[in-house]
Design goal:
heterodimer; A: ABC transporter involved in vitamin B12 uptake, BtuC; 14 helices; B: 15 helices; about 0% strand
C-alpha cells in the first residue's frame, strides 16, 4: 500500500517536471526567458502581503467550487454546469441584497441572507442539470454547458435590462452596493477573513461527508457502480440529485461571495472561469478532499502571479492557464503510463 | 426586407455554419468510432489562431488550413493515445485539452492580435452562380463553404453506404463483434479520431481566414463554439446530415437574432445572441427523453391509441449514442 503510494508520488513528480519542461519550451519558443517568467509569477503571487491577499481572494471561490465538485465526481458525475451555478449564486445574492438595500435590518443579517440566497439559487440551477440528467436522459455535460450559456445570457439581460445602472447600462455591471453590505475585510487587504473561513469550513464538511458518513458512502457507491448501487437498494437517482444540489449550493456560495466580498455588484464575468478551474483542481487531486486546499492555493497563486506577465514581460497572462492545464494533462498521462506499464507497483 | 438582402443574409448563414459543420462532422466520425473528443472548444481556438498565424507569416492561406488540420489531428492523437492506449477517461483528457488549448491559443496568439492578414475571397462557381435564388444562395461562397457541403455528403456516404463505413458503425456499437469480423478496433479508433480531429482543425482556420477573419484573442467570440458544436453532434444523433441540419439551424437562429434586434429593441443584443442555447437544451431533452426508463414505463401505462402516437413522436426525435461510446475495448 505504502509502496504504491510512493510509486504514485514519483510519477506525479515526473508529471510536474514534464509540465515545467513543456511550458519552458513554449516560453523559449516565443523568445521569453522561462526563469524570468517563473520568477515574475512567484513574486507576483507571494512577493508581498498584498499580493498574497489577492491569491486568497482567488482561492476562496476556487476552493468552494472544488469542494462541491468532489461530491459530484464521487457520484460519478461531470458537473460542468458548475460555472453557471456560480453565476446563479451571484445573481441570487444580488437579488436578495436588492430586496433589503433600503430596509432597516442589520447589514450583517442582510449579508447572511444574501449568501443563503446565493446558495439556494446555485442549488436550484444545479437541480436543472440534475433533473435533465435523471429524468430527461440528457448527459450532464451537455445539459450543464447549455445552462452555462443561459446563465451568461441571464446575467447580461439583468445588467442591461431590469437591473440597469442609473443612466447608461454597461459591461461594468450593476450599480455597486453601499459599503455596509460588504463582508468585512482585513484592513488594507482585499481579503475577507469570513469568506476564507466559509471556504475552509466547506471543504472540511465535504471531507467529513465523504469520509465519515453513510450518506457519503452511498454517493461513492453510486459513482463507482451505479447498477450495483441500485441493486443494493440505493435510490440512485435521488443520490445523483443530492450531489448536484450540494455542489450547486457550494458553487452558489462561491458566487455570493464574489458579490459580497469582492465585486459588490453583478458583473458579466462574475464566475471568472472558477468553475472550469475547479474541475481541473478536482481532477488533479484525484478527487481527494485533503489535497484540495494546497492545490487550489497553488492554482490561485498561478492565476494571480500571471497578472504580472503582460506588464513586466509583455506576455499574455493566459500562461497560468497553460501551466495549469499542462500539469493536469501530464498527471493524467503519467497515471495512465503507470497503470499500464508498472502494474501493481 | 427584399429578396436580395434576404438571399445575402441566408447565404451568410451557410457560410457561418461552415466551420461548425467541419467540427460536427469530425466529432461525429470520432464518436461513431467510440471516442468522444471533448477538446473541441480548445482545438477550434488553437487552430483558428495558428491557422491565421501560419497564413500570415507564410502568406499562404493553404498552409494556414493545413496547419489547422495538423494541429487538430495532433490534439486528437493525444485524446486517442490517452484513452485508447492508456485507458484514461476520455472526458477528463478531452476537457483538460479543451482548456489548455484555449489558453495556449491566447498565449501564443498574442503577437498576432488585431493584425490584418490574408483571408479567403468569394469564389463564385461559373455556370451555377447565375441560377436564380440557388445561385446567390449556394454558389457565390468561399472555398471553405463548398468544402463544407462536400464534407457532409462524403461523411454521410462513407458511414451509410460503404463497407468500411459499416465497419465504423460496428466498432462504435459492438466492438467485440467487429473484432471477430476482422476489424482492428483500436487501430480504427485511432484513425477515425485523428481524421475527425483534422476535420475539427479545419473549423478554426475557416473562422480566422474567412467567416471572422483575423485573430482577436479573447474577444474573437470563438470561445464556446466548440461546446455548441458538441451539443449539435448529439442533436444530430451521430448522423452527419442531421448534424449539419443542426449547424445550419444554429447559424440561422443567430442570424435571426441579429435581424430581429432592431425590432425587439427592449431585448439586449447579448441576449438574442445566446437565444439558440435554451433551444439547444430543449432539443437535447427531446432527443434523449425517449431513452429513459420512466418514459418507457409511462408509455406502457398509456391507453393504446395515445401510446402509439406518443411512441411514434418520441421515436422520430430520438437518437441513441453509439453503444460503445467512451468504453475502452479489451481484446480478451
Amino acid at each position: 500500500m505504502l509502496k504504491s503510494k510512493a510509486g504514485g508520488f514519483i510519477f506525479q513528480l515526473i508529471a510536474f517536471m514534464l509540465a515545467m519542461v513543456f511550458v519552458s519550451l513554449i516560453l523559449l519558443a516565443v523568445g521569453a526567458s522561462p526563469l524570468d517568467a517563473y520568477k515574475n509569477m512567484l513574486t507576483g503571487s507571494v512577493g508581498s502581503m498584498r499580493k498574497f491577499a489577492e491569491v486568497l481572494v482567488s482561492f476562496v471561490p476556487l476552493l468552494l467550487v472544488t469542494a462541491g465538485l468532489l461530491i459530484t465526481f464521487s457520484a460519478g458525475l461531470w458537473n460542468i454546469g458548475v460555472e453557471g451555478q456560480i453565476v446563479l449564486g451571484a445573481i441570487g445574492s444580488v437579488w436578495v441584497l436588492r430586496q433589503f438595500v433600503d430596509s432597516s435590518l442589520p447589514p450583517a443579517l442582510i449579508i447572511t441572507l444574501s449568501i443563503l440566497g446565493g446558495m439556494v439559487a446555485g442549488a436550484v440551477w444545479a437541480s436543472f442539470a440534475g433533473m435533465l440528467k435523471t429524468f430527461g436522459g440528457v448527459n450532464e455535460i451537455f445539459g450543464g454547458l447549455g445552462l452555462n450559456f443561459v446563465s451568461t445570457a441571464l446575467t447580461l439581460y439583468l445588467i442591461f435590462g431590469p437591473w440597469k445602472r442609473e443612466g447608461v447600462a454597461s459591461m461594468s455591471g450593476t450599480e455597486p452596493f453601499p459599503d455596509v453590505f460588504s463582508l468585512p475585510q482585513i484592513p488594507d487587504l482585499r481579503i475577507s477573513p469570513y469568506a476564507l473561513a466559509i471556504a475552509l469550513v466547506a471543504v472540511l464538511i465535504v471531507y467529513f461527508i465523504l469520509q465519515g458518513t453513510y450518506f457519503g458512502l452511498k454517493i461513492k457507491a453510486v459513482g463507482k457502480n451505479i447498477r450495483a448501487a441500485y441493486l443494493l437498494g440505493i435510490p440512485t437517482w435521488q443520490y445523483s440529485l443530492y450531489s448536484f444540489l450540494i455542489c450547486g449550493a457550494l458553487a452558489g456560495v462561491a458566487g455570493a461571495l464574489q458579490v459580497t466580498a469582492v465585486y459588490h455588484r453583478l458583473i458579466p464575468s462574475i464566475s471568472s472561469g472558477y468553475g472550469y478551474l475547479g474541475l481541473m483542481v478536482a481532477m488533479l487531486v484525484n478527487y481527494q478532499a485533503v489535497w484540495a486546499v494546497p492545490v487550489a492555493l497553488l492554482f490561485a497563486a498561478l492565476n494571480i502571479g500571471s497578472i504580472q506577465l503582460p506588464i513586466v514581460m509583455k506576455l499574455d497572462s493566459s500562461l497560468s492557464g497553460v501551466l495549469q492545464g499542462v500539469l493536469v494533462l501530464f498527471v493524467l498521462l503519467t497515471e495512465g503510463v503507470r497503470q499500464k506499464f508498472v502494474k501493481k507497483v | 426586407m427584399n429578396q436580395e438582402t434576404l438571399l445575402v443574409g441566408l447565404a451568410g448563414v451557410l457560410a457561418a455554419a461552415a466551420p461548425i459543420i467541419f467540427a460536427v462532422v469530425g466529432e461525429t466520425l470520432s464518436e461513431r468510432a467510440g471516442v468522444i473528443n471533448l477538446s473541441m472548444n480548445g482545438t477550434i481556438l488553437l487552430t483558428a489562431m495558428s491557422g491565421f498565424a501560419v497564413a500570415y507569416t507564410t502568406d499562404s492561406i493553404f498552409l494556414g488550413f493545413l496547419a489547422g488540420m495538423l494541429i487538430g489531428a495532433l490534439v486528437a492523437l493525444v485524446v486517442a493515445f490517452a484513452s485508447i492506449t492508456l485507458k484514461q477517461s476520455q472526458v477528463a483528457i478531452g476537457f483538460v485539452l479543451a482548456l489548455t488549448c484555449r489558453d495556449l491559443a491566447y498565449f501564443l496568439g498574442n503577437p498576432f492580435m488585431g493584425v490584418s492578414g490574408p483571408r479567403l475571397q468569394a469564389m463564385p462557381i461559373s455556370g451555377l452562380n447565375d441560377i436564380p435564388v440557388l445561385g446567390p444562395l449556394f454558389f457565390r461562397q468561399e472555398m471553405s463553404t463548398y468544402i463544407s457541403y462536400l464534407a457532409i455528403f462524403l461523411a454521410w456516404l462513407w458511414i451509410y453506404r460503404t463497407r468500411p463505413g459499416l465497419m465504423l458503425q460496428g466498432i462504435g456499437e459492438k466492438p467485440a463483434a467487429a473484432y471477430i469480423r476482422g476489424a482492428n478496433v483500436n487501430l480504427m479508433r485511432y484513425v477515425y479520431t485523428v481524421i475527425g480531429g483534422a476535420l475539427i482543425g479545419l473549423a478554426g482556420p475557416t473562422y480566422s481566414l474567412g467567416v471572422r477573419a483575423g485573430w482577436m484573442g479573447t474577444i474573437s467570440g470563438l470561445d464556446g463554439i466548440g461546446w455548441i458544436a458538441l451539443s449539435i453532434t448529439i442533436f444530430g444523433g451521430w448522423n452527419p446530415a442531421r448534424a449539419a441540419f443542426g449547424a445550419y439551424l444554429f447559424a440561422f437562429l443567430q442570424w435571426l437574432g441579429l435581424v430581429l434586434q432592431p425590432v425587439l429593441t427592449q431585448v439586449p443584443s447579448q441576449v438574442l445572441q445566446v437565444a439558440p442555447f435554451p433551444l439547444m437544451i430543449l432539443t437535447l431533452l427531446l432527443v434523449n427523453i425517449g431513452n429513459t426508463e420512466w418514459v418507457d414505463r409511462t408509455l406502457a401505462a398509456m391507453p393504446e391509441s395515445a401510446r402509439k402516437f406518443t411512441a411514434k413522436v418520441l421515436r422520430a426525435m430520438r437518437a441513441s449514442p453509439p453503444a460503445a461510446l467512451g468504453v475502452p475495448f479489451e481484446r480478451d
